[in-house]
Design a protein that fits this description.
There is one protein chain. The chain has one helix and 18 strands. With about 250 residues, the chain is mostly beta strands. It has one domain. Strands 2-14-10-9-8-7-18 form a seven-stranded antiparallel β-sheet, with no helix packed on it. It has a seven-stranded antiparallel β-sheet with strand order 3-4-5-6-11-12-13, with no helix packed on it. It has a two-stranded antiparallel sheet with strand order 1-15. Strand 7 and strand 8 form a beta hairpin. It is globular.
Amino acid sequence: MKKMSLFLLLLTILFVVPQTNALTIDVAPGSSPAGGYLPLSLFGVSPIAGMSDESIVNFNVSPFSYAGEMWNRVGIVSDGYIVVGGGTNADVTYINQIFPNANPPNNVLAPFWTDLNPGAGGGVRIAVLTDGSNSWIVADWEAVPNYSNSSELNSFEAWLRIGGVEDISFAYGSVTNGDLGFLTVGAEDKTGTVGDNYYYNGSGILPTEGTQLRVTTSGPPVGVPEPSTMFLIGSGLIGLAGYGRKKFFKK
């Protein structure tokens, strides 16, 4: 009876073989589409309405690829980061995290996560720019002050290529070292279990004017096993404006 019970138990247990090419995220130096920081104000783009201190505004956008999945919504947060897939007020915090972190927000692209206050000056904008061949969603924080000192201004942006090819980058104008020195530059997946930090609160390389970074991911999303990674024991079943050499224009 014990042998039969054990056999039946083995027949009903589902095992997942560890993935050899699990999701990875890397943030490292690399070129952005415009070759540097390109303010959206040059294209006549107006600041996002309602963007004040500690706020998020969601936008439906053309699909883009990040961390092995396609997304068609972004949440632009006043504190210098993007919630991929959109977010709520629970995803807004001026307290920057080190990645990965399972606490909200997750699925974050953070070109410059610190305590910013666009309500005190500057502008946060979003638009689609194209070079005629490819198009990018561009989220731009221009001359946005630190919360603790409105004379300390930060200009930076994120570029998300539209379509199935992942192409994500950060570009920097003049920036500080974050509000009171607190700053995260990095990216994280939707589960908050995979991420990478280029800079965190004094560790790493602080972005400066002219810095360009690329966010690259590889492997399947966490929680989605690949084919042939699941099997049931005993069953046998295996389961624009001119900038550098390129010209960009607003779509």
